[in-house]
Amino acid sequence: MKVDVAVVGAGLAGLTAALPLQVAGYSVLLLEKSRGLGGRLASYRLNGSRCDRGVRYLTEEGRLLSGLVRSLRQRGVLEPWIEQSHVYRAEGLVLDSPRTHYVAPEGMSQIAKELGQGLTVWYSRRVQEITPQADGWRLGLEAVVEGSKDPLEVMAEAVILAIPAPQALPLVQTLPGMTPEMLTPLAAVTYDPCLTLLAQYPQDGVPADLPWRSLEFPDDPDLSWLGFDSSKGTPSKPRGDRLLLVINSSPEFARSHLEDREFTPVIEQLLNQAATRVGDWLKTPETTHLHRWRYAIPRQVWSQDSLVLQTPFPLVCCGDWCGSRQVETALRSGLAAASSINAQHQQRPLPPISQLWDSPS
Predict the structure, then answer these.
(1) Neighbours of 177 (CB within 10 A)
(2) 232 DSSP assignment
(3) Model confidence over 204-220: pLDDT tens digits?
(4) pLDDT tens digits for range 294-345
(5) Which fold has domain 44-106+191-299?
(6) Residue 212 and residue 245: Cα distance in Å, rounded?
(7) CB 158 within 8 Å of CB 5
(8) What is the pTM of this model?
(9) How many CB atoms are located within 10 Å of the residue 305 CB?
(10) Quick one: 292 exposed, middle or buried, by C-beta within 10 A (0-12, 13-18, 19+)?
């Protein structure tokens, strides 16, 4: 199979890059190693209850993100959740600055499903190598999950790597003509990891008068955020019949335990630390699930919107590591990658992303 553009990674940057290119008439294929769209727009089902283990909410910060939030609200995907988050400080709980937090009652992965309508995606396919051929790139693929019927290779005239820089680096460092100087921007990018703990409780296991829904821990050695995930549901779109909290570790705690083989002590430490902050009831969940995010938050970033590599055929890297505003950066970087590929390819008129968001495919 051959396509005009292969987009590696179906997270927010990859989806944003693929949309305008496909509408402009390019044949576009997304290659995603997971079984679903979205990357860190990740939802999970624990005993039948929906929860978010990646992006926890969206706010209207940044021109592109504000436009996306507005569009998703009009489509019925996003709903206001809270107007203010709480912050845990030495003096106790204090309110953060007012700003509306928006969530998808059916799970934040619903955002990716909405944006990905009409796009061709091969799931459970990890790109193992990219090699130049006579008329484009050959992408060799690995089946992450057995049983998938999609092929193990694809030809593309252009490639967008919409994945974390540390994952892009080994794919490009052996390409013809690649020099250490050309690889420096990718090699310099670093990430903070995060451990995300989902903790499920019976209906009477969480205080009815819980004063917070989103709780930040700016100074805690182990914790960064605690969210009452079940409260994101609505009467028409409930999240499940059990109450569920999400605990995000601090980067330091995650780095210390990222490679641990036994997670029980890690879970206990996160629960105990959270319990000392908000109450002993938090120590005794019915069920837990721990997820490792190796590339959670960009720490050392690339200062431009995308990274255009000097290769035999068009190849552009993009992602939330091309700036420091996370979701807004991912959107801007995806658009920059699409624009760069188009400029090197057939130079077709690309539709504005606001038009695509307002008119779902």
Answers:
(1) 10
(2) G
(3) 899 989 999 999 999 99
(4) 999 999 999 999 999 999 999 999 999 999 889 999 999 999 999 999 999 9
(5) Polyamine Oxidase; Chain A, domain 2 (3.90.660)
(6) 12
(7) yes
(8) 0.96
(9) 17
(10) middle
